[in-house]
Specification:
The complex is a heterodimer. Chain A is of the alpha/beta class. Chain A has helices at about 45-50, 75-80, 95-100, 110-115, 120-140, 140-145, 155-170, 185-205, 215-220, 240-245, 245-255; strands spanning about 5-15, 15-30, 30-35, 60-65, 65, 80-85, 175-180, 210, 225-230, 235-240. Chain B contains 15 helices and six strands. The chains are: A alpha/beta, B mainly alpha.
């Protein structure tokens, strides 16, 4: 397996606060890493640093050997890094289709001439994209795939999460960052969503995933490897069982007993 | 005008307002909105057909035709504002300044004997070019500060005109009336016993322009660009993470909108044959925005009834014409309080028909 992504001594500072302190992390193609740690330990900050939403104060973020630290979010996306948000960032007033298809920026004809004057071709490309969106949605849930033109705000929590994941998947990314996908879900929904993630993995065998999660069951079931953060530092790394047995983790995250 | 006549108009106004408040909630109202939204491009023909019918019925009434042409020209400008504010979320308080730039361009270029259609186009392009300079500081700021820059610009624009002697200073400039295909629009059409006011010519010109740009704006809304604009308006950060070039689309929408506003301004100037700085006050800018907000932000069709309300009512109802800004301010506050999406809210884009669902 080849190394797809590697963060090398990445630091992020907010004023006097060291949000990430020389974090290093490697991912091989096709693996899932669980990123865990207490609130404020820098997990989401790490995602924001990777996707270009916050500045790094040092270090390299390499995708296929190219340093993407400091790139604009849009350029990070073009290099195959895609994500979901802990607090959903979907457009509630738009349809399911609009929300998902936006991820296909590079494949869409965005010229004024093409959109205004070649309507025949535009409608053809709507059909083609609609088929894609439907096919992707139906890998999660058939009833959801039938609702492509429903307003997003009519969807349930779990369906909204699925839409977020679909939007992140539509351009076939190489690295998918999932920020606490089970937040706000019932245990049943969480369970269902875990199966979805494993399905995604089955369909995209070469894609790597980093998942931030507080539900230990989820991590145990889906992650190949775990990385534990505390105060912006990596405190442990390894398989789930090894990490949970680590005394550092016991104290910092699970509570010392 | 007789006082009982004023009462008739006032009660008609109140009745139509109540009707507008209610109509979007009735089934018939929703069905009608769905027809307007989902029908093919032919539905846009409703505008020239209805406009022509009204224009012909009023063919001898100078004032009524001028009002009609003004409504159509304002509607065209407000389609530009809808692209900027309704779609892309770029607030533009300087609408009337770009309208004025179009007008002054028509005054300067029209005097040089250029073809009128070219002058109209130039009005749009000069507006867009000056808008390009203004958008640069707007892009560096967020939220209310961007609005403040456009407010500063509209105030600056008027002061600039008043001290600039090449552009006529406070007295303003004369504008050459349009000549299209050898026919001066300053002479009314005469066919046999049918004689029309010259304003009918401008009604026709405005109808053609409005229909064309209305259709283009409709295409724009229902396109990949429209989806991009909506997503970045709702969540610029989220859109950027999925590859949307937010700054580019802000500039584009501002430029496209200003082209429309500039063309509208040039048409208006040619019709009036005279423009002065006092035509382009900040209050006028607010009236243009009031049309967009009252109608329903982002709903192209709503621009037309809202333009009628804002342009015609104060002229017809002399009792309120002095207080028009007060009346519209109250109306906008009421609409924003009780119907934040406007009298005729925009309906969600879908491609059901295109994919055969």
């Amino acid at each position: 397996m080849s190394k797809l992504f590697s963060a090398d001594n990445v630091s992020v500072r907010f004023g006097g606060l060291q949000a990430l302190d020389k974090l290093s992390l490697d991912i091989d193609e096709g693996t899932i890493i669980g990123l865990i740690g207490p609130n404020g330990s820098g997990k989401t900050t790490f995602f924001n640093a990777v996707t270009g939403l916050c500045r790094t104060a040092g270090g390299q973020i390499l995708v296929d050997g190219e340093d993407i630290a400091g790139l604009h979010p849009r350029h990070v996306y073009q290099r195959g890094v895609s994500r979901t948000f802990q607090r959903s960032r979907l457009c509630l007033s738009l349809s399911v289709f609009d929300n998902v298809v936006i991820g296909r920026q590079n494949a869409l004809d965005l010229t004024l001439f093409g959109n205004l004057f070649r309507r025949g071709r535009f409608i053809e490309s709507v059909r083609e994209n609609h088929d894609r969106v439907r096919a992707l949605l139906s890998t999660f849930s058939e009833p959801l795939a039938a609702r492509t033109f429903d307003p997003l705000h009519t969807l349930s929590m779990i369906d909204r999460r699925r839409i977020e994941v679909c939007r992140a998947l539509i351009a076939n990314p190489r690295l998918l960052l999932l920020d606490e996908p089970s937040a706000g879900m019932t245990p049943d929904e969480t369970h269902e969503f875990m199966s979805d993630i494993l399905k995604v993995r089955g369909d995209h065998p070469r894609m790597s995933i980093i998942i931030i999660e507080h539900e230990m069951d989820v991590i145990q079931r889906v992650a190949d490897r775990c990385v534990v953060l505390n105060f912006g530092k990596k405190v442990a790394e390894g398989t789930f069982d090894a990490v949970v047995a680590d005394p550092w983790v016991q104290e910092a995250y699970l509570g010392s007993s | 005008m007789a006082s009982e006549n004023q009462w008739v108009i006032a009660s008609a106004l109140v009745a139509s307002l109540f009707l507008s408040f209610g109509i979007a909630r009735t089934k018939a109202g929703r069905d009608f909105a769905a027809i307007l939204q989902n029908s093919g491009s032919w539905i846009v023909l409703l505008i020239p057909v209805a406009g022509l019918a009204i224009g012909l019925a009023l063919h001898e009434e100078h004032f009524a035709l001028m009002m009609l042409a003004t409504v159509l020209i304002y509607a065209l400008a407000c389609i530009g504002l809808t692209i900027q504010f309704g779609y892309a979320g770029v607030i533009n308080f300087a609408g009337i300044a770009f309208f004025g730039i179009g007008g002054y361009t028509a005054a300067v270029l029209g005097g040089m004997g250029l073809p009128s259609l070219l002058v109209l186009l130039a009005g749009g392009l000069v507006s867009a070019a000056i808008g390009c300079i203004l958008i640069l500081p707007v892009l560096r700021t967020k939220g209310h500060y961007a609005a403040l820059i456009t407010i500063a610009f509209v105030l600056l624009f008027r002061s600039f005109l008043e001290v600039n002697h090449t552009l006529g200073g406070p007295q303003g400039l004369r504008v050459e009336s349009a000549t299209i295909a050898g026919q001066s629009l300053f002479t009314g059409i005469r066919i046999g016993s049918f004689e029309a006011s010259f304003y009918l010519n401008y009604v026709l010109l405005a109808l053609v322009l409005l229909a064309i740009f209305f259709l283009m704006a409709r295409f724009l809304e229902k396109s990949w660009i429209g989806i991009n604009l909506d997503s970045m308006r709702e969540d610029p950060v989220g859109a950027a993470v999925f590859g949307v070039n937010v700054a580019y689309w802000r500039i584009m929408s501002f430029v496209i909108g200003n082209v429309l506003i500039g063309i509208a301004g040039a048409t208006f100037a040619m019709m009036q044959t005279f423009i002065a700085p006092s035509n382009f006050t900040f209050q006028q800018s607010l009236l243009m925005l009031a049309i967009v907000v009252l109608g329903g932000i982002g709903n192209l069709w709503a621009v037309i009834p809202a333009a009628i309300l804002v342009v015609v009512v104060p002229e017809k109802l002399q009792a309120i014409s002095e207080y028009r800004f007060l009346v519209f301010a109250i109306l906008v506050v009421l609409v924003l309080r009780f119907r934040p999406n406007g009298l005729f809210p925009r309906s969600m884009r879908n491609f059901r028909k295109e994919v055969g669902q």
